[in-house]
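Entry type: protein chain
Record version: 2
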Amino acid sequence: MTSLVIIKTGDAFPEVIEQHGDFEQLFIQQLTAALPSHLTLTVWDAREPTTPAPPSSFAGVMITGSHSMVSNQEPWSEALKPWLQQALAEDIPMLGVCYGHQLMAAALGGVSDYHPAGRESGTHQVRLTQAGLQDPLFGQLPERFPAQLTHAQSVMQLPPGATVLAHNSHDAHQALRYGSRQWSVQFHPEFTPPVMRAYIERQQTALREQGEDPQALLAAITATPDATSLLRRFLAFL
């Protein structure tokens, strides 16, 4: 048996955990039905003071979101960077999500920091670039599709050699590819509409302060099957 490791980098809000599961459980819920018989799922909490197994011991890697900020350079987060560099060098399949997206970019030579336009939350359209349309993971998706988003930081400067696969009006770097089997996305393919709704409810004050209408964002939440399908499509590269 070989293992797909879900690297946990944070916890969801308590009410989300209670009603829907924590970040890693949201991934597991989306992956379980599509998991090939030769694969198992493992969770590694990167914040725990343990020595991680080398990247080559895993068939693939997924990195969750977090309420931490990559630019704060917390010790556990910084310790992941050389591990991710090694995983890329060894061509281990990787898919980073939100914090995982920003951390991968920072580890591989880019810059992740606060977005000058503020927070992006809710269901928003994402558009594939020409490279995205031809990408082996993204190429079967529609050119435009809705995705669930909640982030204050973004990839502000691309790592050398990274390819932009998707963007939108808020963020020029919604999806990136770093190698033949290494990708990351700013949006949350693991989020369901109820999870997205819980995040908007929690963020109402902050969203109002930056001129957003939380009620309009809540009303616009929809299912995002194309974005979610990336998790299952990724399994084909392991």
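Comment: The domain at 2-237 is CATH 3.40.50.880 (Rossmann fold).
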